[in-house]
Amino acid sequence: MNRKPRTEPYLLLLFNYLHCRMNLSKIDNLNYTNLKKGYEGELQLDRLADKLQSELFTLNDLLLETNNTEFQIDSAIITQTAVFLLEIKNYEGEHYYESGRFYTINKQEISNPIHQLNRKETLLRQFLKNHGFHLPIEPYLIFINPEFTLFQAPINKTIILPTQLNRFIEKLDKHPSKLNGMHNKLVDQLISAHKKKSSFLKQPNYEYKHLQKGIPCLRCNSLLQSVRGNKVVCNDCGFEEKIESAVMRCVEEFMFLFPDWKVTTNGIQEWCGVVESKKTIQRILNKYLRATVQGRWTFYV
Ligand SMILES: [Zn+2]
């Protein structure tokens, strides 16, 4: 049973919103690409884990803290006898392993995923101990991408290569499991300790006045849209969306990017750029949000 479904991490969502409204720096762009790729890999594993029939709990994307140290878990699967700690890597292409280190085929060393996993295992063990749980941890490093090759791979039972993935899931499903109240308590503890946002987040700087206004196309992200009747139509790819859903997407985005700002008809009209009728914006805001009047101003929550 999936007790904590995965949602897009804060930073990925932020980049999703910002990248069509401003030019991201080279580093931010690289970071964005890696985050997207990592998230796709995690979703791929979720699809496999969803097929598990055995009695177990799955928790995805946990951000925890123990002894003042933050750590993130891609997936934790709780069975009767163990916590499976899964670190998922969506690496692609040819890599090789030599003297305990990982390299791309171009001899570029990459940060050692086994060390990352070991660190997380230690921290999770401390977390469990601090909260009075004594389930053993089984750590696994999962290379999810079928296009990934690791030459000279070590014979290491914690590493699961793409060709071993189905067998790994089958083995997990055969793991004897009967969950009880302790497992439930553990899951509740993990979910309540989950932090929504990392304290060490390196997020790009952005300012309202520097962001391009408009409604990003759902299909191609272009801000070049026209309003036709009750639809917005992308001038680049022709994709059509109901104006209500397009405006509400922009409201959601506005609230995410500027959480301390008030949502007003004028503000949203400017943010959406393309909707000329103030009445249309007002009607949509009134339909989906609650209007609050403060003096001369009406804003929406
Ligand atoms: Zn488009």
Automatic annotation (TrEMBL):
PROSITE patterns: NERD. Pfam families: NERD. Residues 37-147 form the NERD domain. InterPro entries: NERD. This is NERD domain-containing protein. It comes from Neobacillus massiliamazoniensis. The lineage of its organism: Bacteria, Bacillati, Bacillota, Bacilli, Bacillales.
